[in-house]
Write a structure and sequence with these properties.
- The protein is built from eleven helices and five strands, in the order H-H-H-E-E-H-H-H-E-H-H-E-H-H-H-E.
- With 276 residues, the chain is mainly alpha-helical.
- It has one domain.
- It has a three-stranded antiparallel beta sheet, with helices on one face.
- The protein is globular and about 60 Å long.
- The model has no long low-confidence stretch (mean pLDDT 87).
Length: 276
């Protein structure tokens, strides 16, 4: 049987990429206020995005900072949690953060300094949003109690998704499945040849090119922050893949605002997986 071309299968995959109605709803929700003030919009945005992507901030847990034993976990399914969390966030500069995030301009995907700066700023915004979620959750669950020695579970995945739907051209989505696919796509280890997309393994020429794109930005774009390190690496991988898609003139829908390149990279990573 003739070996499938990785680039050919990526091109086919990209050309068949579906435009889902559900994403239209989420993008439109986050980019149109529909006459509602932020204190009415934010609780619903937290609720709907979190539930849609199985990454809801209501599923939260805490650990003592000096120990690994779980201290306490919560899963408040009522709307009051989102109301309280949104109120805390609004009082603590959420609107300034959102303004900073939505003002970022889309990438050129050519490795330019402007792109690197935007990538850094996007990572920073996700970190700030994650801190707001964690601090707000602690305020709700431990109000009146000294909680400085308690650490809340990170919400980086949810934070990246929330930011993405407010600025789809800039923010990359972090998901455990897509992160796994990305790590194997860029890995130089031979065992990664068990990972395929549509039955095609990545060839060394393509992998080398992708890693050249990655090397061009990783030294400058990744902040020295353990909390954000996984997301930062994922953003660098995503940016490098998007640059590859653009420079290889892949048939992505350039004029479809609901299918930005950031979605293509996420979906390709999700579908680059081990053969069963």
């Amino acid at each position: 049987m003739e070996k499938k071309s990785f680039t050919g299968e990526i091109k086919k995959f990209v050309s068949e990429m579906e435009d889902y109605f559900g994403n239209h709803i989420l993008y439109d929700m986050c980019n149109n206020d529909y006459g509602f003030d932020v204190d009415k919009r934010l609780p619903s945005e937290l609720w709907i995005i979190g539930r849609s992507y199985a990454a809801s901030p209501e599923r939260r847990s805490y650990h003592p900072k000096e120990a690994n034993d779980k201290l306490k976990s919560f899963s408040d399914g009522r709307g009051r949690f989102f109301d309280k969390l949104a109120a805390y966030m609004i009082k603590n500069n959420y609107e300034q953060l959102l303004d900073d995030a939505t003002q970022l301009k889309g990438y050129k995907y050519d490795g330019c300094d402007e792109d690197l700066k935007t990538l850094q700023q996007s990572i920073n915004c996700v970190g700030r949003f994650n801190k707001l979620i964690k601090d707000g959750s602690k305020f709700i669950d431990f109000d009146g109690i000294d909680s400085n020695d308690i650490d809340c579970k990170n919400q980086i995945s949810f934070s990246s998704k929330f930011m993405h739907f407010h600025n789809r051209q800039v923010f990359f989505i972090l998901d455990n499945y897509s992160a796994d696919g990305a790590n194997h796509l860029f890995s130089q280890r031979n065992r990664c040849n068990t990972y395929t997309i549509n039955g095609a393994t990545i060839d060394e020429e393509t992998r080398t090119l992708l890693n050249e794109y990655k090397l061009n930005i990783i030294q400058n774009a990744v902040p020295e922050n353990d909390e954000l390190s996984k997301y930062s690496i994922h953003c660098v991988n995503s940016y490098a893949l998007c640059r590859f898609l653009k420079e290889q003139d892949m048939p992505y829908q350039k004029n479809n605002e609901y299918l930005p390149l950031t979605r293509y990279s996420d979906t390709i990573f999700m579908n680059f997986k081990a053969e069963k």
